[in-house]
Amino acid sequence: MLMDGTAAAKRIVDQAAADTAALKADGVTPCLATVLVGSDPASVTYVRMKQNRSAKAGIGSWHVELPEAITTRTLVAALTELSQDPDVHGILLQHPVPPHIDERAAFEAIAPEKDVDGVTMHSFAAMAFGEPGFVSATPGGILRLLDEYEVDLAGKHAVVVGRSPILGKPVGMMLLARDATVTYCHSRTADLASYTRQADILVAAVGKPKFITGDAIKPGAVVIDAGYNPGNIGDVDFAGAVDKASLITPVPGGVGPMTIAVLLEQTVAAAKMAQRRL
């Protein structure tokens, strides 16, 4: 069965829109600031999608475009300024940034209460320790999609292929918090298939097209493809996996819409918290 992220995301965004309307009635308009460094075509497309979805939910957008040659110091200053702006409730730094930028330093310039993409060390620690805070948007979307299809995680073996600090690592922490037994793997794991064949829940987040083949999947596994590569190709060889998995996310239409939905939901939540602090 295909896991329809588009339909599940619509329900989340519809609720975010209703909450936004209630906030506007009280004089508060949730605002998401997007920051784009350079003009990478894929990043430009992603930011535009997020702005369009924000507009449909009634959420305000503030877009900041910065030149590719910008320094880390200047980017940090821009993010710090947004963090201090009371009219901005959520901040999204589109990643990856150009290689000369210290991405971690840039992420850490985002105030935790505005980190609606869940990229700071504060947010990661909150996820790991089960404390209040914003979750990384893609892992959060994955967990919501698993819930949508009533996948029981307790006692299951979850294998995460990928170790990104904003995807692979946090999704493993979130699965662990739901009583799954978690194994982390990556592109350099020796005999990777011996691990993935044990997975009741397999999360592919390695950033390599068709990296996980059908023969590396346990029959009946739930397969979450969090990869997105040129040509709308995921990290899983869909044709080889679809007959092995009990549930599988398509690319596109699976994890992607859920990521944006969680981002918008958390922006509205940030606006609510800001309103309570007034």
From TrEMBL:
It catalyses: (6R)-5,10-methenyltetrahydrofolate + H2O = (6R)-10-formyltetrahydrofolate + H(+); (6R)-5,10-methylene-5,6,7,8-tetrahydrofolate + NADP(+) = (6R)-5,10-methenyltetrahydrofolate + NADPH. Residues 136-273 form the Tetrahydrofolate dehydrogenase/cyclohydrolase NAD(P)-binding domain. GO terms for cellular component: cytosol. Residues 3-117 form the Tetrahydrofolate dehydrogenase/cyclohydrolase catalytic domain. Keywords: Amino-acid biosynthesis, Histidine biosynthesis, Hydrolase, Methionine biosynthesis, Multifunctional enzyme, NADP, One-carbon metabolism, Oxidoreductase, Purine biosynthesis. GO terms for molecular function: methenyltetrahydrofolate cyclohydrolase activity; methylenetetrahydrofolate dehydrogenase (NADP+) activity. NADP(+) binds at G162, R163, S164. It comes from the Bacteria. GO terms for biological process: L-histidine biosynthetic process; methionine biosynthetic process; purine nucleotide biosynthetic process; tetrahydrofolate interconversion. Its EC number is 1.5.1.5, 3.5.4.9. Pfam families: THF_DHG_CYH (PF00763), THF_DHG_CYH_C (PF02882). Pathway: One-carbon metabolism; tetrahydrofolate interconversion. Belongs to the tetrahydrofolate dehydrogenase/cyclohydrolase family. Homodimer. Catalyzes the oxidation of 5,10-methylenetetrahydrofolate to 5,10-methenyltetrahydrofolate and then the hydrolysis of 5,10-methenyltetrahydrofolate to 10-formyltetrahydrofolate. This is Bifunctional protein FolD. The gene is folD.
